[in-house]
Design brief:
heterodimer, A: alpha/beta, Aconitase, domain 4, seven-stranded mixed sheet, 8 helices, globular, B: alpha/beta, Aconitase, domain 3, 3 domains, five-stranded parallel sheet
Chain lengths: 179, 435
């Protein structure tokens, strides 16, 4: 489960590889982690319930470096930061979606999980469990099966700097230490 | 250039800039530097940070990790416990303990504690929310406060921690969509039905990242409670914020609730909108959002006959006194249907007291309803009435995502208090005008 990812970190400079978890439009934070589980404070125990509605044992099946490829409005709903946090904890390397709900997007960048927009015409090329490779510089994802490489929407430099720092908290920590 | 303010103090007037929408003017007055431009990211000063259980659950831990010693301004933070009241488990009790330790250690001035009610009802009622403010809250439905002519949006735990430490955060300057509400609502149609109609029209991401600015042609056409409901549901359309233009009804509400100074914000003539549209209130009928999405909106009459297991009247969307009064008016002296458990949760202590005074609680209990103390409770799958597999619930809350209130295959239908209570009595979904 979650502990397998301890040693793994997404590479912002090199190539990453994993399996594509292809999802539809309007995946909500309740789909990612339902409110009824939120009283579980231990995040590793909580992670066992991620995507429980869609996939039996997602937490066991997902491997470090896997990506989520989703339609529009990914992460709609609640402000719960556990949603992107648990995905990162389980080893999801990045989320490529046609669009993101705004609080989820902020939360993902803030905890250091790349959330990047993919054009809908490319999104439809992905099939469940497609092995993929992806890079952030330049931002692109390749389907290994078809060898087709798709560009991703470039992230503003401001967001890239937060992601490279590992999220907003390491940056805040630095700032507070200087005070 | 110098000018004289109403208080007699000398003020420096800003040079005239481009005409702005309400949100653009609030961003301009809160940007740390420069003139905000649509689409740009700017650092803004926060006037009020609202936090609920997320403080005890996550923010306190993240703040420790970041090495936070002092909060930026203990008088600009409002804290409240509302999601699980009272604690249904030892784990939640620990979240509440962590919250209290933080509040005490940092001397948070405005701690509303665990008996004030649901944040989006109790916080505006406390008088801390004022026109023109820049507000963030650790809850997606923080868009609610825009009914009071302020910028107000939801953020997560890390963003809340950053604001706690610095009093500022980054925000993208949103585009504005303007909606004018024209005419008056028919009897038994409510602000909830207006919001549902907008959800059907805009969809779940039609307003993503945008500011929804709303004007009313006649102040009396929509009570403040209905405006809070529309502000609340703005986030279900993806809106970053919902801001109402000031009018007489807002003035009257502010006189009753706010004692300190404030200045209302109007859009400038010639302000640029991405889109402008009007909604004809006399044509708004009782609507229901069917699963699996708040935008899957149909006329209540189209869903009539669907058997119901549970009705929930409450939440930050529709747990205000007006909502309970409307439910009581629809209930009259009838009984809740045998097959239905009707759970009613006033959304704040003040609403609870008002309902007690007016005899509404007695009326509900005698009719066979279950009345609980203010909490978010079942709305977010917390406690006080979760759904079993395959069960059907008509709820006045805000989300009908699968699994939101319990079992993944339970069905949640979102409706107004009138439609919800009519359905509770009938045992099936019904248009309240037919009941």
């Amino acid at each position: 489960m979650a502990d397998k990812t301890r040693e793994w970190k997404v590479s912002f400079d090199g190539e990453n590889k994993g399996i594509a978890w292809v999802m539809k439009d309007d995946v909500s934070t309740d789909d990612i982690i339902a409110g009824k589980f939120l009283e579980i404070r231990d995040l590793e125990n909580l992670s066992a319930h991620v995507f429980e509605r869609f996939e039996n044992d997602f937490a066991r099946k997902v491997k470090p470096g896997d990506v989520i490829i989703a339609g529009n409005n990914f992460g709609c709903g609640s402000s719960r930061e556990q949603a992107p946090y648990l995905l990162k904890l389980l080893g999801i390397g990045a989320i490529f979606a046609c669009s993101f709900a705004r609080i989820f997007y902020r939360n993902a960048i803030n905890i250091g999980l790349p959330a990047i927009v993919i054009d809908r015409k490319y999104y439809t090329s992905f099939k469940a469990s497609d092995p993929v490779t992806y890079t952030f510089d330049p931002p692109a994802v390749t389907i290994v099966r078809s060898k087709m490489k798709y560009p991703l929407q470039p992230l503003p430099a401001f967001f890239t700097s937060i992601l490279r720092a590992g999220g907003a908290i390491p940056l805040l920590k630095e700032e507070l230490a200087k005070r | 250039m110098k000018g004289i303010s109403l208080s007699g103090r000398e003020t420096i007037l800003q040079p005239a800039t481009m005409p702005g929408t309400i949100v653009e003017k609030i961003f301009a007055s809160h940007a740390v530097k420069g003139t905000p431009v649509i689409g740009e990211i700017v650092e803004c000063k926060v006037d009020l940070l609202m936090m609920h259980e997320m403080l005890g659950d996550q923010v306190a831990r993240i703040a420790r990790e970041a090495g936070l010693e002092n909060v930026w301004d203990s008088s600009k933070i409002v804290t409240i416990l509302d999601h699980w009241i009272p604690a249904p488990s030892e784990k939640v009790a620990m979240i509440h303990q962590e919250y209290r330790r933080f509040v005490k250690r940092h001397g948070i001035k405005h701690d509303l504690g665990m008996t004030a009610g649901v944040c989006h009802v109790a916080v505006p009622d406390s008088g801390l929310v004022k026109p023109g403010m820049f507000i963030v809250g650790s809850d997606s439905h923080t868009t609610t406060y825009g009914a009071l002519n302020c910028f107000s949006t939801g953020i997560g735990a890390t963003d809340s921690t950053v604001v706690l430490a610095k009093g500022t955060n980054w925000f993208k300057v949103p585009e504005t969509i303007r909606v004018d509400l024209v005419g008056r609502l028919p009897t038994l149609s409510t602000g909830k039905d207006v919001a549902l109609q907008m959800l059907g029209q805009f969809g779940t991401e039609g307003l993503n990242y945008k500011s929804l600015e709303i004007g009313l042609k006649e102040p009396a056409s929509l009570p403040m409670s209905g405006r809070f409901t529309i502000g609340n549901l703005g986030v279900e359309m993806g809106a970053k914020c919902v801001i109402f233009e000031p009018d007489k009804l807002l003035d009257a509400w502010l006189i009753e609730h706010v004692t300190s100074d404030y200045k209302t914000v109007y859009p400038d003539p010639g302000a640029a909108y991405e889109r402008k549209l009007a909604i004809d209130l006399p044509r708004v009928e009782p609507l229901v959002a069917a699963p699996p999405s708040p935008s899957n909106v149909k006329p209540a009459s189209e869903l009539a006959g669907k058997e119901v297991d549970q009705v929930f009247i409450g939440s930050c969307t529709n747990g205000r006194l007006d909502d309970l009064q409307l439910a009581a008016k629809v209930l009259k002296n009838k009984k809740i249907h045998d097959r239905v458990r009707c759970i009613i949760i006033p959304a704040s202590r003040a609403v609870y007291e008002g309902a007690l005074k007016e005899g509404l609680i007695e009326q509900f209990v005698k009719a066979g309803a279950i009345v609980e103390y203010p909490t978010c409770g079942p709305c977010m799958g917390g406690h006080m009435g979760l759904l079993g597999p395959g069960e059907v619930c008509v709820s006045t809350s805000n989300r009908n995502f699968p699994g939101r209130m319990g079992a993944f295959d339970a069905e949640i239908y979102l409706a107004s208090p009138a439609t919800a209570m009519a359905s509770a009595v009938h045992g099936k979904i019904i248009d309240p005008r037919e009941a």
